[in-house]
Amino acid sequence: MRHVSIFALVLSVLAASVLGVAQDTPAPEGTRVPEGNRADLRDAPPRPGPGDVEERARVLLAAIVADDPARAMDFFLPREAFRAIKGIADPDGLYDRIVRLYERDIHALHAQVPADAELVRFEFSRRRGWVGLREESNRLPYWAQRHNTIVYRTGGEERSFEVRTMIAWDGRWYITHLSEFR
What we know:
Elements: H1 2-19, H2 53-66, H3 79-85, H4 91-110, E1 118-123, E2 128-131, E3 142-154, E4 157-169, E5 172-177
Antiparallel strand pairs: 1-3, 2-3, 3-4, 4-5
Helix pairs in contact: 2-4
């Protein structure tokens, strides 16, 4: 039995090195890890409340209408937090990719959302959960919210679009994907 567990350990180390996963390494030096995202948490802390999501959703909608992704970057997960969370060999490469996707999604929504759009509300879905250590190549845990909705009004009618994935870092919600990750 001991040989089987040693074999499993060796296999997991090899898999991690092949995949570029460094999940057991600590967050980058100098990174402050918030209380609710500590690696030693075994149970989920309370899920953060909405905080300033409504106001940042208003800014995101304005960025979409203006076709200006830079205006909505405060709603996107900061690079330092992403580096701390992701236990992969090249977190900056992946971060740059998901930022480009976020920008692409804002441009695509610009073509769909009318210029007179006004935010009605931001709706958190019921699809939420605690993403534990080592899930999704993470070295730090976090709360995730999936398939949320921004509801806006245009021409007297309500319309909406999805905010695919958000995660909580230091008690604040951030977008990581506006649409499906491809």
